[in-house]
Fold:
Amino acid sequence: MKRALLILVALAFVVPQAANAKTPCRNKIYNDWYPDGKIATTYPIACYRDALKHIHSDALTYSSLADDIRSAMQAALERARGKHVPAAVGKGGKGNVSPAVATLSTKTPAPRSRNSQPSNTSTVAAAPTSGSGGGIPTPILILGGLAILLAALGAAGAGAKRFRRRPGA
Structure:
């Protein structure tokens, strides 16, 4: 009985601490960047690296977030060396990225050596085109042909059903 009571008391102290877990500092960088596309505060270098590792692929594709974080990290390194750099770093080109897209990540970073620079490893598939970049895309042509084939089969089935119902057939 005493052991169960001690466990409950210990859990009472552990659970609130877990609920108040500190948010990652990368989220502070994302939140700083989102309103105007610029990072105006200096953060620890580890925060920049963590933010670069966890950028969602949509933010990599449709915004300048990764470039802006790299620029802000370089500016923080320059400030640490005593050089004067602008307070806000970034292009201001956030595109159409929601805060949720910028803060969530599903990709796992590739292992890097300690001295290598972060790299953008995402890929974007290009839509197939016909000829010199103009015309109707191939998937649309295939779906259109399939629709015409299905309509013809339906008409043939209706005609066959009508032919069977005729008297004398």
The longest helix spans residues 138-165. The radius of gyration is 29 Å.
